[in-house]
Write a structure and sequence with these properties.
Blueprint (H helix, E strand, L loop, with lengths): L4 E4 L2 E4 L3 E4 L14 E4 L7 E2 H110 L3
Antiparallel strand pairs: 1-2, 3-4, 4-5
């Protein structure tokens, strides 16, 4: 690729920089007013300034469109996160409710077990007391039966047959 260098209004332009091409002055205009700014990047993608601005505007519009879609997507994702957070909070509150129910049921069972244990102990003490009383009351009856049997044997052994 050959190196191009042009001087315009005291400014030098070369490859990769702004280049100026002079239009012919056959149409009656001066060369300075007919100077058309062109960009030559060295890769044959040159073109006049209007073409470059048009391409840049298209790229800018594409970027704005992409950013707008990205913003919409981020808003939808944020909404989904908010919904998931709300659902999580609901489930967490339900677990709190279930936990309090378990605590209530546990206390109720503990109280019932304690009550049943005390009732069983009272029944055992009552049974033991009743058994002791029955034994105490049975002793005189046993003695009385033994005495009656002794007297009956003594009576029948003295009676002539």
């Amino acid at each position: 690729m050959e190196k191009q260098e042009i001087v315009f209004d005291g400014v030098s332009f070369s490859n990769g920089r702004w280049l100026t091409t002079q239009a012919s002055s056959t149409n009656g205009h001066s060369e300075e007013s007919d100077a058309i700014m062109k960009y030559d990047s060295g890769n044959s993608r040159g073109g006049n300034m209007t073409d470059r601005v048009d391409r840049l505007e298209k790229n800018l519009n594409l970027m704005e469109s992409t950013l707008s879609r990205l913003n919409d997507t981020m808003l939808r994702i944020e909404g989904r996160f908010d919904l998931a957070d709300h659902k999580f909070e609901t489930v967490l509150s339900r677990f709190g409710s279930v936990d309090s129910r378990f605590d209530t049921i546990s206390k109720s069972f503990s109280e019932k077990i304690d009550s049943a244990s005390k009732l069983t102990q009272a029944n055992i003490k009552t049974s033991a007391t009743e058994t002791k009383l029955a034994i105490i009351l049975a002793i005189p009856a046993i003695i009385g039966v033994g005495t009656a049997i002794y007297k009956a044997i003594a009576y029948f052994s003295h009676v002539p047959a």
